[in-house]
Amino acid sequence: MANPRRVKMVAKQIRRELSDMLLTDKVLQYAVLPEAALGADRYLSSLTTISDVEVSADLQVVKVYVSVFGDERGKEVALAGLKSKAKYVRSELGKRMKLRLTPEIRFIEDESLERGSRVLAILDKIKDENDKKTTEDSQNWYEFEIKHGFASSRGGSFSTFTPWSISFQPVSTMEI
Prior knowledge:
Ribosome-bd_factorA_CS, alpha+beta, KH_dom-like_a/b, 176 residues, GMP Synthetase, Chain A, domain 3, 3 strands
């Protein structure tokens, strides 16, 4: 069993190397996006990123979490391409890194970033609806104030009682 600090360092290095391979290695690029071999722009079709890397305590297995942004077909093709090139990736990592044994690579689809962006979109929609509702409520209250003759902070004068407007005068002491 390896030192936990070493496991983290190996995971960090593997993530760096895999990210570099996705950017520079033509074999891996064509596996992720077969259309790139035909001249298609790989940045416009789909975007593949390494979101996380988990290394087992014995440094034998690496789980690589991959996020693919694009349509469903693009996701399936990219993940299938990565899985088919797992042995190639393992051999390339062995050449690039100084490890006694190169760990087995397992690619796993990570939908957390996509799920997070969907949640943020829903929250933005709710915020917009609340802002619209607040504006409508504010307008309705203003019309109610005008209709019923209440003083308004929007141009009318406030002559209402507020607790902080009370001033206390000292009471004179009486002699007995």
